[in-house]
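Quick one:
INPUT:
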């Protein structure tokens, strides 16, 4: 039986770079409440997804296991205004102050 190679453990100091790289793929990322975050690759067109998918796999390989940092990632996203707390908020950008 072949086992999967273990992913490295992402470090908390890497959270900003991780978020930036996700955003750079064209995928949306935002916190939902205080405990989870989502990466919005489903919002991409088929063509955009075809481009983003290998980038997302590389990000996963580069940063490794980050599940234990979930709350820290959520806190960072919330500090950027990238969060949804209410069913009345359709998109995290509605949390940003008007320009």
């Amino acid at each position: 039986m072949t086992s999967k190679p273990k992913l490295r453990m992402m470090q908390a100091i890497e959270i900003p770079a991780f978020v930036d790289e996700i955003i750079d793929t064209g995928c949306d990322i935002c916190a939902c409440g205080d405990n989870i975050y989502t990466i919005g690759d489903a919002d991409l067109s088929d063509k955009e997804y075809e481009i983003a998918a290998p980038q997302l796999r590389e990000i996963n390989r580069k940063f490794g296991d980050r599940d234990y940092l979930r709350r820290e990632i959520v806190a960072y996203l919330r500090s950027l205004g990238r969060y949804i707390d209410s069913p009345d908020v359709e998109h995290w950008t509605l949390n940003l102050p008007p320009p």
